[in-house]
Amino acid sequence: MQRSTIVLATAVAVGLAAWLLLPLRGHEAAAQPGPYLVNAVNLDIVPADFDKFIEAAKENGAASTKDPGCREFNILVADNDPHHVFFFEVYDNAAALEAHRATDHFKKYIATTKDMVAKREVRQFSSVAMNLAGM
Question: The whole model's pTM is what?
Answer without folding.
Answer: 0.73
